[in-house]
Design goal:
By secondary structure, this protein is α/β, with parallel strands linked by helices. It is built from 15 helices and seven strands. It folds into three domains: about 120 residues, no CATH class; about 45 residues, no CATH class; about 170 residues, Trna Endonuclease, Chain: A, domain 1 (3-Layer(aba) Sandwich), CATH 3.40.1350.10. The longest helix is centred in the first third of the chain and has 48 residues.
Length: about 375
């Protein structure tokens, strides 16, 4: 009976894998078809609307007529058709730089053929991940970025990391493209494997946006325990800010060394790095002594918690602010891999606007 159950389990595993792969292929094909269609329609609309062939309300009229011709049609509102035009126009320049062979060119006499064939003749020049994400992802990226290099970075991240739109929006908001790989660290002297060095550097940012942490006034700063509590209460958002492959182990993680208790603020495991990652939270500016404490925690984690097949633990000091040279000097002679990053809580009113509005007492007088 147990043997039969095991056979069933294996069969279910195989069938489940086949279903998931089939769904992924179907979604990829659907994206490919949709992007091809939208790019082609965008090109057709651009050529006719930008050159003055159509009147100012042409797109609204076309959208309305399409709804009449195809009742229940979705995704072809005037606003969406304009997004298709933007989608085409933003990628047209990039694609033009990659000349097509003569036999790949499409005859301009058959507009329907041109629209349907664009996936084969134009979009095939883009990286494979381009066709694996949805149009909503593409429009978010176009709307929030400028350079093609930055756009291709986010497209690859969406395709390989299976980002949903919420994750994409968060990483666009925090400017992941510019912040990733900039963490101040000592990985070169503490991690011997060059590939692991690179992966470790790319796994962390130099600044984290914790805009879900509310503070009462611009002059108040949360202390470490308030900061930690807010992060734990919003752990899903914090993991989103860290990026993929991080799993939360616990807060105030207890270590016993010679009958003395020590507590790591936040402890994670990173699947790609195959190591524990300890975070220490500091409400103020970075101080050199923070690294000595983290070095101790990492030694204890490696001896008492780390499994034999795992890499050595990494520590990140998360401070409100830091001075580069101070961090650089503090790293010297440290034996454990560590980095120092900063964080921002909810956005404060910029200094130039602070005196525009009256304070609370003046408001009372005015009222």
């Amino acid at each position: 009976m147990k043997k039969i159950a095991n056979n069933y389990s294996e069969a279910i595993k195989i069938i489940k894998g086949a279903i998931l792969k089939s769904r992924y292929r179907a979604a990829t094909l659907a994206n490919r078809e949709q992007l091809s269609l939208y790019y082609g329609i965008g090109k057709f609309i651009s050529e006719n609307s930008r050159n003055g062939f159509w009147g100012s309300s042409a797109i609204e009229t076309i959208s309305e007529k399409l709804q009449q011709e195809l009742p229940g049609l979705r995704g072809f509102s005037a606003g969406n058709i304009k997004k298709m035009r933007i989608f085409f126009e933003q990628w047209y320049e990039y694609l033009e730089k990659r000349a097509l062979p003569t036999n790949d060119l499409i005859s301009p006499n058959n507009r329907d053929v041109e629209i349907r064939a664009l996936i084969t003749h134009e979009l095939k020049k883009l990286p494979p991940g381009f066709l694996n994400i949805g149009f909503t992802h593409h429009y978010e990226i176009i709307n929030k970025t400028v350079s093609h290099e930055e756009r291709l970075f986010y497209i690859e991240c969406c395709a390989t990391g299976f980002w949903n739109v919420e994750t994409l929006r968060y990483n666009l908001k925090t400017n992941l493209y510019k912040k990733r790989g900039k963490l101040q660290n000592n990985f070169k002297t503490t991690i011997s494997d060059k590939d692991l060095q690179r992966k470790a550097l790319m796994s962390f940012k130099d600044e984290y946006l914790l805009d879900y942490i509310n503070i009462e006034s611009p002059d108040d700063e949360p202390d470490e325990r308030v900061l930690e509590s807010e992060i734990v209460n919003n752990i899903r958002k914090f993991i989103m800010s860290l990026g993929k492959d991080f799993s939360f182990i616990g807060s105030q993680y207890r270590l016993m060394v010679e009958e003395q208790e020590y507590f790591v603020d936040l402890l994670f495991f990173n699947r790609q790095l195959q190591c524990l990652v300890a975070f220490e939270l500091k409400s103020g500016s970075f101080k050199p002594e923070y690294l000595g404490k983290m070095n101790f925690y990492l030694s204890a984690l490696d001896d008492l918690v780390r499994l034999p097949h795992e890499n050595h633990s990494i520590g990140i000091i998360l401070c409100k602010s830091k001075k580069q040279k101070t961090v650089e000097y503090a790293f010297r002679d440290m034996t454990k891999p560590m980095g120092v990053a900063t964080y921002k809580t909810a956005k404060k009113l910029p200094p130039k606007y602070k005196n525009i509005l009256p304070d609370a007492e003046r408001l009372k007088e005015l009222l």
